[in-house]
Design a protein that fits this description.
Pectate Lyase C-like; two-stranded antiparallel sheet; LD_SV2; alpha/beta; transmembrane helix; synapse; 13-stranded parallel beta sheet; about 775 residues
Length: about 775
């Protein structure tokens, strides 16, 4: 009795062991079959133009796995690293699938029509669906990568590029007074220097923004910053005014791509819950660039002793040293950018799966090591990529020469940029583009218009004070005299000078009108803002002077001689401290935006982008009415600081909203277009507000107030991107989501089933294993 009981017990134990082993082997066989199918799909994507050589390595539609394959046949590179029970290590890289791998597995069951039989509308519809799925998955991946050392390193690298843009805006205004004197720029041509830089930035913003959506954020930013640095450095050495304008035009063209590319680049490595705050902190580098330019101008330009000359034709003055120093942030950003990777979001958008996965893993590992968790693995194995739509390029027959090929390539890229730009006006982003256009134009018009109007009003107030201090000498006659001192702030009208000697005289802001110089001598004379209008020179000698022809306006010379005349305009006054005041005013105006930057960064994700945008623009418009009380220089400087502090919050929130409202494939293009519009509005504002300085004060105030308030009200109608910030998904919620997906549809078997009846457990992506 006991022996029979023991026999039954042993039999039941053996049966259980056999069942356990069968189940283990079944799991192993199914995994190997899935691995072979996955290898076949991957191989098919990489050798799409080759015929299939081995028909026994996969299972066509209608056949099932018979369980008799050799165990070694299921091995592949994709499953390298499995243990003896063929279990997958957590975070093990299974190989990025091809962009159509998931659809290939469905084709093996249902056999839908291929891409070659679909029209472009169907393909674009599928791509939009893929992009929506990628956007949701990418947000979860960025959350898993975390925010840490990588983002902060990229923050400082891109901040240097943004700092270079801020420097470029200020550098022209700072060097203009000295450049006008050194390059002998007439008053009629001085306005071109400021306008030409904005023209270059306007074209550059549109071009480089569109190129960033074609070739990548890093590549576009590297090229545009290199162009800016090269021509900014070259402009410090040129002597002619025309060549100097040309260099500053190309320098502005290069730096124009910094803002759209920098914000698009940085936004794509940030989770939505941190995007508003950290993009606002990034905006501070533009302010730092303005402070850097003001401080360097204050320290360098007034020191005229920091110069050298090669004869009288080549002069290298301190303002040229300042131009070189201002190019350093650009050079630093180019060097640092070479060590940073491309945006993984852009790589996924163009179908470069492997590169994107490696960069995301780099971000994850860098942040985890900085947190002291190097053992934490990157658990993402598969990444969704949008369907790639081939673009047909018309190749002409005459493309054998290199310049023809370059021409076709450039024309194709420009046409691609234009097509991407036109897509910014397609549904569903068309309404957002129109509203953003209004907000960008009104904010730029009001901000840059008043920014030019403030200094001009201050200069107007200074000129009124100067008119009170200017000494007017009229209808007098001097004979047999000698002058060797400085003459400053004087107007001589109807004077007669006979046998006079001007030896070593420094003329500063002196004007001679309707005067006669007879038998006079000008020797070792230097001049600044000095002109002879409708004067007559008889038997007069000019020796070693800097009197250029443009300083003699409607003047007449009779038997006069010029010896050792200095060519080029000269900057020789070491006691000219008026520049200090200009740089100090700009320094205060730039520093005033620091509180606004801090407030916008801290409150961006709390009160919302639109509330900050509309509120800041409306408050800026209201603050313009305080300009009625600006009757002195100190009061106007105070109004300037208040105005800059209020508008900076609007700029920061507008940058964030613009980045978040455009999809990845047209983000930089849309941003570049709006930034180009910003520069056009700035030029228009400069012209309109500048012409009204000496006429009236009420029209600029009312105009700026109206456009700012209207723009703020339109900005409140934009979609609030803060509501799109998702909550952080926990690993448990992610597993529950995977189970729900598993119970509804399986990509491998192509059927709807239930966990209890089917016995198959699906992960988030097309890889099925038998449930244990």
């Amino acid at each position: 009795m006991e022996d029979s009981y023991k026999d039954r017990t042993s039999l039941m134990k053996g049966a259980k062991d056999i069942a356990r082993e069968v189940k283990k082997q079944t799991v192993k066989k199914v995994n190997q079959a899935v691995d072979r199918a996955q290898d076949e799909y991957t191989q098919r994507s990489y050798s799409r133009f080759q015929d299939e050589e081995d028909d026994d390595d996969y299972y066509p539609a209608g056949e099932t796995y018979n369980g008799e394959a050799n165990d070694d046949e299921g091995s592949s590179e994709a499953t390298e690293g499995h243990d003896e029970d063929d279990e997958i290590y957590e975070g093990e890289y299974q190989g990025i699938p091809s962009m159509n791998q998931a659809k290939d597995s469905i084709v093996s069951v249902g056999q839908p029509k291929g891409d070659e039989y679909k029209d472009r509308q169907e393909l674009e519809s599928e791509r939009r669906a893929d992009e929506e799925e990628l956007a949701q998955q990418y947000e979860l991946i960025i959350q898993e990568c975390g925010h840490g050392r990588f983002q902060w390193a990229l923050f400082f690298v891109l901040g240097m590029a943004l700092m270079a843009d801020g420097v470029e805006v200020f550098v022209v205004g700072f060097v203009l007074p000295s450049a006008e004197t050194d390059l002998c720029i007439p008053n009629s041509g001085s306005g071109w220097l400021g306008s030409i830089v904005y023209l270059g930035m306007m074209v550059g913003a549109f071009f480089w923004g569109g190129l960033a959506d074609k070739v990548g954020r890093k590549q576009s930013l590297l090229i545009c910053m290199s162009v800016n640095g090269f021509f900014a450095f070259l402009s410090s050495f040129v002597q002619g005014y025309g060549f100097f304008l040309f260099c500053r035009l190309l320098s502005g063209f290069g730096i124009g791509g910094a803002i759209p590319t920098v914000f698009s680049y940085f936004a794509e490595v940030l989770a939505r819950e941190k995007r508003g705050e950290h993009l606002s902190w990034l905006c501070m580098f533009w302010m730092i660039g303005g402070i850097y330019a003001s401080a360097m101008a204050w320290a360098i330009i007034p020191h005229y002793g920091w110069s050298f000359s090669m004869g009288s034709a080549y002069q290298f003055h301190s303002w040229r040293v300042f131009v070189i120093v201002c190019a350093l942030p650009c050079v630093s950003s180019v060097v640092a950018l070479t060590f940073m990777p491309e945006s993984p979001r852009f790589l996924l958008e163009v179908g470069k799966h492997d590169e994107a996965w490696m960069i995301l893993k780099l971000i994850h590992d860098t942040n985890m090591r900085a947190r002291g968790q190097p053992e934490k693995v990157f658990t993402v194995n598969k990444i969704k990529t949008p369907k790639q739509i081939d673009e047909l390029i018309e190749i002409e027959s005459d493309t054998g020469t290199w310049y023809r090929r370059c021409f076709v390539r450039i024309r194709t890229e420009l046409y691609g940029i234009w097509l991407t730009f036109m897509r910014c006006f397609n549904y569903p982003v068309r309404d957002n583009t129109i509203k953003l256009t209004i907000v960008w134009f009104t904010l730029s018009f009001g901000y840059y218009g008043l920014s030019v109007w403030f200094p001009d009003v201050i200069k107007h107030l200074q000129s009124d004070e100067y008119a009170l201090l200017t000494r007017n000498v009229q209808r007098d006659k001097y004979a047999n005299f000698s002058i060797n001192f400085t003459m400053e702030n004087q107007i001589h009208t109807g004077m007669e000078y006979d046998n006079g000697r001007f030896i070593g005289v420094k003329f500063k802001s002196v004007t001679f009108k309707d005067s006669v110089f007879k038998s006079c001598t000008f020797e070792d004379v230097t001049s600044l803002n000095t002109y002879f209008k409708n004067c007559t020179f008889i038997d007069t000698v000019f020796d070693n002077t800097d009197f250029e022809p443009y300083k003699f306006i409607d003047s007449e010379f009779k038997n006069c001689s010029f010896f050792h005349n200095k060519t080029g305009c000269q900057i020789t006054f070491d006691d000219d401290y008026s520049a200090y005041w200009i740089y100090f005013v700009n320094f205060l105006g730039t520093l005033a935006v620091l509180p606004g930057n801090i407030v916008s960064a801290l409150l961006m994700d709390r009160i919302g982008r639109l509330t900050m945008l509309g509120g800041s623009m409306v408050l800026s418009g209201i603050s313009c009415f305080f300009l009625w009380f600006g009757t002195s220089e100190s009061m106007m400087i105070g109004m300037l600081c208040l105005y800059n502090g209020l508008t900076i919050s609007a700029w920061n929130s507008l940058d964030v909203v613009t980045v978040e409202l455009y999809p990845t494939d047209r983000r930089a293009t849309g941003f570049g277009f709006l930034n180009a519009l910003c520069k056009a509005a700035a030029v228009l504002g400069n012209l309109i507000f500048g012409s009204l300085v000496s006429i009236t004060k009420s029209i600029p105030i009312l105009l700026a107030s109206t456009v700012l308030v209207c723009g703020g009200l339109v900005g409140l109608r934009l979609p609030d991107t803060r509501t799109q910030v998702p909550y952080k998904v926990t690993p448990r919620e992610r597993r529950e989501k995977a189970e729900v997906l598993a119970s509804t549809q399986h990509l491998l078997c192509g059927s709807h089933c239930d966990l209890q009846t089917c016995g198959v457990f699906c992960l988030e992506y097309p890889l099925c294993i038998l449930s244990a």
